[in-house]
Amino acid sequence: MLKAKKLPDQFRGDVVTRVVYLLNRASTKNVQGIAPQEAWSGLNPTVSHLKVFGCINPCSKNDWKVHEMVVKSVFLNGYLEDEIYVEQPPSYANKIEEENKMCRLKKALYGLKQAPRAWCSCINNFFLKEGFRRYPYEHALYTKEDENDNFLTMWLYVDDLIFTGNSSMMIEEFKESIKKEFKMIDIGLLHYFLGTEVKQGDNEIAISQKKYAKDLLIKFKMENAYPASIAMELGLKLSKHDASEPFDATIYKSLVGSLVYLTTTRPNLMFSVNLFRRFMASPKRSQWEAGKRVLRYIL
After folding, report:
1. In angstroms, rounded to a whole number, what is the distance separating the alpha carbons of residues 296 and 292?
2. pLDDT band at 288, cuts 50/70/90?
3. What does pLDDT average to over the chain?
4. Model confidence over 90-141: pLDDT tens digits?
5. 71 C-beta neighbours (distance < 10 Å), count
6. Were both Cys, which of 29, 40, 205, 261 would link to 60 (CB 3.0–4.6 Å)?
7. What is the Cα 124 distance to its own chain's centre?
């Protein structure tokens, strides 16, 4: 996993240590169904100190507000490096004598396969000009620091800019600077992004996907179903060799993919969703019904 994410090898020791710590506190069949730590010490291990959201969010801890800005007509801002020609628009062709001539594009248009790359190069050059540093392991993440230890961290997603920092003056200066370069919409504080609601309070940031979950239920016509108290039936066993009839793989993949995104704020669904992902190639009716039960659980 470290190699796949191109992370430094220095993290390998930390990963192994944490895995061993968790395995020693998990029950195992090799030691009569009890945890290795309990078999060794005779004491029942506790995991109450482990929390899903145990990491400290520096933004909420230091009361740094997260802002959002949107670039208007994002793909019309990039300049093309390739030679691309288009036919003259009718209104333009009527004004010149030689109608067989073509127009060379200097800036990108929507629909060109070069447009996303041109925009990426354009915004990257702007950030570098403004003194930002691009992270080598995450090319959509930029940061800027000054001599007074003030900083501004920027995350780019196509035309959305999400940023925060410890200096309100630096944030306002950046807003004014980028407005001079591109046509922008200043959303203000981040409150909704990619199906996730964000609420920012005093030393607190809360995220949820209530609207996304509701839309998911409507998509699969489950909004009026009876709710389930647990995500999966007790003792449920799913297999690739299930005797039930085959199910539409496209619909099944759509359900599993939607649930994967929902685990962003519902990590308690992770086990069930990862189990369903094993059957993406040739799903069966029983696996589809198990997935629908998860939808009933999120009601």
Report:
1. 7
2. very high
3. 84
4. 766 556 566 677 788 888 888 788 888 888 888 999 999 999 999 888 889 9
5. 22
6. 205
7. 20
Query: Are 169 and 161 contacting, i.e. CB atoms less than 8 angstroms apart?
Result: no
Closest residue by Cα to residue 102 from 88, 116, 81: 88
Question: Is the Cβ–Cβ distance between 213 and 268 less than 8 Å?
Answer: no
- Cite the DSSP H helix spans in 103-226: 115-129, 168-181, 210-219
Q: Give residue-wise pLDDT tens across range 179-209.
A: 999 999 999 998 998 888 988 888 788 888 9
Give the separation between CA 75 and CA 111, rounded to whole angstroms.
9
Find, among 273, 292, 288, 271, the residue nearest to 226 by Cα: 292
Structure tokens at 96: 């010149």
Structure tokens at 230: 């647990």
Q: How far apart are CA 155 and CA 163, in angstroms?
A: 6
| Nearest by Cα to 187 from 286, 67, 291 | 67
Chain CA centroid to CA 215, Å: 18
Q: Contact, 159 vs 70, CB < 8 A?
A: yes
> Phi and psi of 96, rounded to 5°?
-125, 160
Amino acid occupying residue 296: R
Q: Say how many residues make up the chain.
A: 299
Place of tokens 């933004």: 59
The residue ranges of every structural domain in the chain are: 58-206, 210-297
CA distance 205 to 190: 10
Determine how many CB atoms are found less than 10 A away from the CB of residue 207: 14
Residue found under tokens 């409150």: 191
What's the rounded Cα separation, in Å, for the pair 98 and 113? 29
What pTM was computed for the model? 0.69
Residues in contact with 137: Cβ distance below 8 Å, sequence separation at least 6, in sequence order: 5, 6, 7
Strand, helix or coil for residue 58: helix
